[in-house]
Amino acid sequence: MKIAMTALAAALTATLAGAALAAGPDKDTRTLQRGKYLVKIGACNDCHTAHYMEKDGKVPEAEWLTGSAMGFQGPWGTTYPVNLRLRMQTLSEEQWLKMARTAMRPPMPWFNLAAATDADLRAIYHYVRSLGPKGEPAPAYVAPGQPVNTPYIVFVPQNLPKQTAAATK
Ligand code: HEC
After folding, report:
1. Ligand 1: residue whose CA is nearest its atom 17
2. Is the peptide bond preceding residue 147 cis, with omega within 30 degrees of 0?
3. Which atom of ligand 1 is the closest one to the Cα of 87?
4. 81 CA distance to ligand 1 centroid (A)?
5. pLDDT tens digits, 65-83
6. Which domains does the chain have, with CATH numbers?
7. pTM of the model
8. Is the dihedral angle over the CA atoms 101, 103, 105, 110 positive or is it negative?
9. Residue with CA at minimum distance from ligand 1 atom 18
């Protein structure tokens, strides 16, 4: 009887733990840790955190994903890595899942983000929101040929191999 009661108590505890998890993913440390890990290996900071690349990633977590005013210019115009700390606060979880699977302008590697599972995208969402809003919105997108008022990096391939006559036919 004692063993049966212990088993029952264990089962009940497990059920309650499961219910708590489903009800409050915001506060689930494992979800947040997973989100942080995905942000880190997903290279989100490389663009969405100012100076992250130059500093070999040595930027305090408090500054992460606050966007960048360094534009990326190419045939698509000039784009700026959005301040995700502000942007995520405006989105519901479902809106985030939809956005993460929608095409974005270069050099945002949206097709990689789009390949993440729902669970991973939700983890990223809760982690970024847990960091709280910070900073200013990144500058707005500038169409090709329009004046740009910020520093920017130009994406132009150099020193391409000469095309052979056969290849151009
Ligand atoms: C190579 C640079 C680069 C990397 C790496 C990168 N981004 Fe971006 N991201 C951008 C740029 C630039 C934009 C703006 C694109 C535009 O204007 O359409 C953007 C836009 C976005 C947007 C759209 C926001 C909006 O309001 O439309 C989201 C969401 C986003 N990035 C999330 C991420 C996440 C999450 C990661 C990591 C998995 C990531 N990005 C990695 C450069 C990058």
Report:
1. 79
2. no
3. 26
4. 5
5. 999 999 999 999 999 999 9
6. 25-136 (1.10.760)
7. 0.84
8. positive
9. 105
